[in-house]
């Protein structure tokens, strides 16, 4: 079956660098185990995550994520079958928006700010396409 791509955005509740490192460590281990690949985009206030893999394993992963108190107000943006993975080589690619070049993010800003919960699915997928091509 074609891979399933899931995208959601959420609000950070724990802004510490230690929390972020811990999220990436544990998440990458689970994702490697489950052949899930993807990216987690981190801004000062929000997470946007794109996950790709087996539909059943992606569902279980999303259940784990939903129960994590380090974020809140999770909004599902997309769940689709896709022909191929965008971040096929990354168990969880780490992208922090302050480290991106201004010209990369600029086309995706709303009222001058990165507001993933206001972005349509296609805009988020476009941003992920740009980021995945930079990652390769
Ligand atoms: C923003 C965010 C992204 C996460 N991404 C993943 C992920 O990609 N894969 C995963 O297994 N867990 C992810 N987690 C961690 C899970 O929510 C959970 O803490 C972890 O899987 C441990 O689950 P366990 O206590 O059942 O072992 C994420 C958590 C947060 C807050």
Word description of this protein:
- The longest helix has 17 residues.
- The mean pLDDT is 96.
- The protein has one domain: Alpha-Beta Plaits.
- A hairpin with a 3-residue loop joins strand 2 and strand 3.
- A 5-stranded mixed sheet has the order 4-1-3-2-5, with helices on both faces.
- With 136 residues, the chain is of the alpha+beta class.
- The structure holds flavin mononucleotide.
- Flavin mononucleotide binds next to helix 1, strand 3 and helix 2.
What are its keywords?
alpha+beta, five-stranded mixed beta sheet, binds flavin mononucleotide, Acylphosphatase-like_dom_sf, blue light photoreceptor activity, FAD binding, BLUF_domain, BLUF domain-containing protein
Write a brief caption for the model:
One of its GO terms (molecular function) is FAD binding. The chain has four helices and five strands; from the N terminus they run E-H-E-E-H-E-E-H-H.
Going by helix content, strand content and strand pairing, the class is alpha+beta
**N-C termini distance:** 25 Å
SSE order, one letter for each helix or strand: EHEEHEEHH
Beta-sheet strand percentage?
25-35%
Average predicted confidence as pLDDT: 96
Q: How many E strands? A: 5
State the CATH architecture.
2-Layer Sandwich
Shape: globular
Q: Count the DSSP helices.
A: 4
């Amino acid at each position: 079956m074609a891979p399933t791509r899931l995208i959601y955005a959420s609000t950070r509740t724990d802004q510490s660098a230690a929390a972020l490192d811990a999220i990436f460590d544990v998440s990458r281990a689970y994702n490697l185990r489950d052949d899930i690949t993807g990216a987690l985009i981190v801004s000062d206030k929000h997470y946007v995550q794109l996950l790709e893999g087996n539909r059943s394993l992606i569902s279980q992963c999303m259940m784990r994520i939903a129960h994590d108190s380090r974020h809140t107000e999770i909004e599902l943006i997309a769940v689709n079958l896709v022909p191929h993975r965008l971040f096929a080589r990354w168990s969880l690619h780490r992208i922090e928006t302050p480290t991106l070049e201004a010209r990369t993010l600029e086309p995706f800003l709303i009222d001058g700010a990165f507001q993933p919960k206001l972005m349509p699915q296609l805009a988020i997928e476009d941003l992920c396409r740009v980021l995945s091509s930079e990652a390769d």
